[in-house]
Amino acid sequence: MSKRQVHSQFSEDEYDILRSLLSQKPVFMDIPLDQIHIDWSYQDRPREKLVAQIAAAFYPVMAGVPVLAQRPDGSLYCGDGVTRVTGMRRAGHERIVVHSQVVRVKDVGQEALLFKFLNCERKSVPPANRFQAAHVAGTDKGFGSLLEKTGFRLTGTGEHVIKGPSFLRQAFELDEGESLQKALYSLKATWGKRFDGTVVLGVAMLYNRTNEPIDDKLRKVLGRVGPAKLNEHVVKAWGGGEKLGSTLRACAKPAFITTVLAQLMNNATPKGKGKKLNIAALRDSLSELVVV
């Protein structure tokens, strides 16, 4: 993979940090399996099916050459080869010695970026893992911290993990997280914890493009329509009909969500009882925010 391809997934600050790691002379060591640790703060657990296959029929040649990060205290953490290490451990091979490449890091932040780089060598790191690694490394400008503050996570399973992390990142970049925070709190208060990143971005864009205070009105609308009903409104607004609704590209959906919610808020505002949003102006202003 070329430097340019790798660089496309890293900020300039991250790439500067990586250079000090990648310029190290390769060091190989034989490490007992029970001395290889795994830090789950910046990576997801490996696919269960692959772990089970390794555990069920393990041969020494399957160990390969894991890449380990050596922290200042001498402890070793697996940056590449977690599936193999987990499978060997499950099979009870704690005493096996694994021939490994060791890279010295100064902190867990560098370690997280090393993990991200090593996975880039084979395929593009999923956005959730990429953003989580940047959060642990402290190079994400507070994106991961904001999610944690509002009770959500980028990686793992469960109702606290929002699908579509790239949409969350777009929402964060609108105004350094102000609109994203408002959107997450409003959705959390009305819908609980299960919703998609397209909805978060749509709500965040509404906050970002509206000068008037809309929190109370928006929360009432969100609480009344719910996820399924909102999707019906979006499909109707798009004009594709229920059967064609599935072909609406995800990147275009947030803008429809924004305008649909604005219209629903206007419908819920009796004449003379409050200022209504300018839907036409709102729709025009969204074109510059939609990333295709």
Run of helices and strands: HHEEHEEHEHHHHHHHHHH
Q: Taking Cα atoms only, what radius of gyration do you get, to the nearest Å?
A: 23 Å
> Strand share of the residues?
5-15%
Strand pairing plus helix content: what structural class? alpha/beta
**Largest sheet composition:** 5 strands, mixed
Distance between the termini: 25 Å
The total strand number stands at 5
Low-pLDDT windows of residues = 1-7, 241-245
Strand order of the largest sheet: 1-5-3-4-2
Shape category: elongated
Mean pLDDT: 84
Helix tally? 14
Helix content: 40-55%
- Supply the number of structural domains: 2
Describe this structure in words.
The chain has 292 residues and is of the alpha/beta class. It has two domains: 3-137, Conserved hypothetical protein from pyrococcus furiosus pfu- 392566-001, ParB domain (Alpha-Beta Complex), CATH 3.90.1530.10; 143-286, no CATH class. 52% of the residues lie in helices and 9% in strands. It is built from 14 helices and five strands. It has helices at 3-7, 12-22, 48-56, 82-90, 108-120, 127-137, 143-149, 165-175, 178-191, 197-208, 215-238, 241-244, 253-267, 279-286; strands at residues 27-32, 36-37, 67-70, 76-80, 97-104. The chain has a five-stranded mixed sheet with strand order 1-5-3-4-2. A hairpin with a 5-residue loop joins strand 3 (67-70) and strand 4. Helix 5 (108-120) packs antiparallel against helix 6, helix 8 (165-175) packs across helix 9 and helix 10 (197-208) crosses helix 13 (253-267). The longest helix has 24 residues, at 215-238. It is elongated. It starts with a helix and ends in a 6-residue tail after the last helix. The model is unreliable at 1-7 and 241-245 (pLDDT under 50).
